[in-house]
Design the sequence.
């Protein structure tokens, strides 16, 4: 005969009581606690996500609307949607091709990444690994530049570049990148290098390597996470920069994507908001692709890479 459910439960309880030491309460099944708090938290998180993503969704939907439906319309979904705005944006504006603006932005962004990676990594190595007189003072001065507002140095910088004949060129936008003028990236790489074991430098020095060989063969390969992080920020900041190109670039043929977006809005005549939204979406694509391609390196570890045999 098979045991009844009541008898089975009693047997299991007795067996559990025998196996449990005296003075210890048998473990109980976890109860559902905090279910209400979890629901409230997730609802709040979804609401915040909707608020954050709404401007991007509105811009995407507006890129399919005619220009007269964008301003003053409360409908998110376009009634007379189409790809005409993208066709207009790809044709360019003012006789200048859309791909000219893309090429100008890519030149500045790629050159900025190269300048930041080269100059800031070398400067960070000098501060983190080389002892020289005045290192603390120079490091303090570098950190102090991060506290200096950009608007304070606009006029002196413009005067200097104007006297050097560099206005309407890319040099004012790139020269500081190759001179390690971005203290944020230098500080980021210094903090990263300080986490690398000093034994690596000592082993390289025993093998007869100098600072150049130690930096290029030992330190630089381990700095991939910091270099990729700096590259992502440098690329995005350069691609989205509006004020710098507006200040130094005068020829529309040298305009970048942010300046090209401004050309679609004219306060004295007709403004093409539809084409502006379409170009804004197209301008976001390179940044998204660049971030998605390298974001997996952002959280890459260093200890395992440095201790591999």
Sequence:
């Amino acid at each position: 005969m098979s045991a009844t459910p009541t008898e089975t439960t009693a047997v299991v309880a007795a067996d559990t009581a025998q196996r449990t030491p005296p003075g210890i309460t048998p473990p109980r099944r976890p109860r559902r606690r905090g279910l209400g708090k979890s629901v409230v938290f997730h609802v709040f998180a979804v609401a915040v996500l909707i608020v954050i993503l709404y401007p991007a969704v509105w811009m995407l939907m507006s890129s399919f609307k005619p220009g007269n439906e964008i301003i003053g319309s409360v409908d998110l979904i376009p009634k007379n949607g189409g790809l005409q705005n993208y066709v207009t944006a790809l044709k360019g504006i003012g006789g200048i091709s859309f791909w000219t603006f893309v090429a100008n932005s890519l030149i500045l962004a790629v050159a900025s990444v190269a300048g930041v990676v080269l100059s800031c990594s070398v400067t960070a190595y000098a501060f983190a690994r080389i002892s020289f007189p005045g290192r603390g003072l120079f490091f303090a001065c570098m950190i102090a530049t991060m506290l200096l507002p950009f608007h304070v140095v606009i006029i002196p910088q413009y005067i200097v570049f104007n006297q050097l004949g560099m206005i309407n060129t890319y040099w004012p936008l790139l020269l500081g990148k190759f001179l390690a003028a971005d203290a944020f990236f230098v500080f980021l790489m210094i903090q990263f290098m300080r986490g690398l074991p000093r034994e690596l430098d000592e082993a390289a020095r025993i093998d007869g390597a100098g600072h150049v060989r130690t930096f290029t063969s030992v330190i630089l390969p381990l700095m991939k996470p910091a270099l990729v992080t700096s590259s992502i920020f440098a690329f995005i900041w350069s691609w989205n920069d509006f004020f710098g190109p507006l200040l130094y670039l005068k020829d529309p043929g040298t305009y970048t994507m942010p300046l090209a977006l401004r050309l679609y809005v004219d306060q004295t005549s007709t403004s093409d908001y539809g084409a502006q939204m379409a170009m804004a979406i197209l301008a976001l694509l390179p940044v998204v692709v660049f971030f998605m391609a390298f974001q997996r390196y952002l959280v890459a570890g260093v200890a395992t890479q440095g201790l591999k045999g």
